[in-house]
From TrEMBL:
Gene3D superfamilies: CBS-domain, Glucose-6-phosphate isomerase like protein, domain 1
Pfam families: CBS, SIS
Domain of life the protein comes from: Eukaryota
Record-linked SUPFAM superfamilies: SIS domain
Organism this protein belongs to: Gossypium barbadense (Sea Island cotton)
Residues flagged as site, Catalytically relevant: 73, 125, 166, 207
GO molecular function: carbohydrate derivative binding; isomerase activity
Transmembrane segments: none
Domain CBS: 224-284
UniProt KW keywords: CBS domain, Repeat
Protein name: SIS domain-containing protein
GO biological process entries: carbohydrate derivative metabolic process; carbohydrate metabolic process
Entries under NCBIfam families matching the protein: kpsF
Length: 319
């Protein structure tokens, strides 16, 4: 083969030795986890719970939407806490400070609360947002970890999250500060959940695709097969003539009914296997569904929860 044209020459791999990697010992990792635990303990031991209570009560009393804002890692935390509140049936939203200055601030009203997360309290984007938000009549709350900062001084309320230091060896990467922000926000969210007496059913209604939602929302009548979807037959029907009906409806059974559509029993795939074992020769062609069906099947009403039906189907002695 000829060489590639000059324009298609592939770049050569970089020269030089790869960076030196030290082996990570179990002791080193364990010490890091212990250090982070100590930093978190410092937060819990020094948090001003009167501030936390005032903050939580203010959110509980809010007549409008609770907005959260932040930049960088604090922004991710603010967005997550807002999403948690929404899932708990509390009106909340994340407000990007940059987008807010380009039109999104129009979402704010005098009935709203704006919570600003910032470790230093000197985040330029949030400081630029403050006067604009105040002009909308919003109640402003800062959540910071540095004392006597510009953001706290300009807000109506400040919550100080005590930070001993970042786990980062340079005390720079925001890993401990964001951890305590998340701990604080999520704990307040659960406090609001309790104060608003949110029921398990209300919670499930906001999670319809999740396991909890499905178990608490859907009733048997919501998920059961109906009318033409049902694999039905009469007890006098020959078993061999009902094999298509048994397999085509995807239920694994036949519902044996009388002329008024009352359920007399069920004939399952298992019943068919037992029939084939017991019968021999031409006898199989003469057996009727009523001869081999189960006349005491497990039943459940249409208004029962679907999860109850599943539990009943899977319970012993024959799950």
């Amino acid at each position: 083969m000829g060489s590639l044209p000059p324009s298609l020459d592939l770049p050569s791999p970089p020269l030089g030795k790869p960076p030196h990697l030290q082996l990570l010992s179990e002791t080193t990792l364990l010490n890091l986890f212990k250090s982070q635990q100590n930093h978190l303990n410092y937060f819990f031991q020094n948090l001003d719970f009167s501030q936390a209570l005032s903050f939580t009560q203010t959110l509980l009393n809010s007549r409008g939407t609770i907005f959260f804002s932040g930049v960088g890692k604090s922004g991710f935390v603010a967005s997550k806490i807002s999403q948690t509140l929404v899932s708990l049936d509390i009106r909340s939203s994340f407000l990007c400070p940059l987008d807010a200055l380009h039109g999104d601030i129009g979402a704010l009203s005098s009935a709203d609360v704006l919570v600003l997360f910032s470790k230093s309290g000197s985040t330029e984007e949030l400081l630029r947002l403050l006067p604009c938000a105040r002009a909308k009549g919003v109640y402003l709350i800062s959540v910071t970890s540095v004392s006597n900062n510009a953001l706290a001084n300009a807000c109506d309320m400040n919550v100080h999250l005590p930070l001993e230091r970042e786990l980062c060896p340079f005390d720079l990467a925001p890993v401990t500060s964001t951890a305590i922000q998340m701990l604080f926000g999520d704990t307040v969210a659960i406090a609001l959940m309790g104060a608003r007496s949110l029921t398990k059913e209300q919670y499930a209604a906001n999670h319809p695709a999740g396991r909890i939602g499905k178990s608490l929302i859907f009733k048997v009548k919501d998920v059961m097969k109906k009318k033409d979807e049902l694999p039905i037959c009469k007890e006098g029907d020959l078993i061999m003539e009902q094999l298509v009906e048994l397999s085509s409806k995807g239920c694994g059974c036949l519902l044996v009914i009388d002329d008024e559509y009352h359920l007399l029993g069920t004939f399952t795939d298992g019943d068919l296997r037992r029939t084939l074992i017991k019968a021999s020769g031409e006898a199989i062609f003469k057996l009727r569904v009523g001869d081999m069906c189960n006349r005491e099947p497990r039943t459940i009403g249409p208004d029962a929860m679907a999860v109850e039906a599943m539990q009943k189907m899977e319970s012993p002695p024959s799950p």
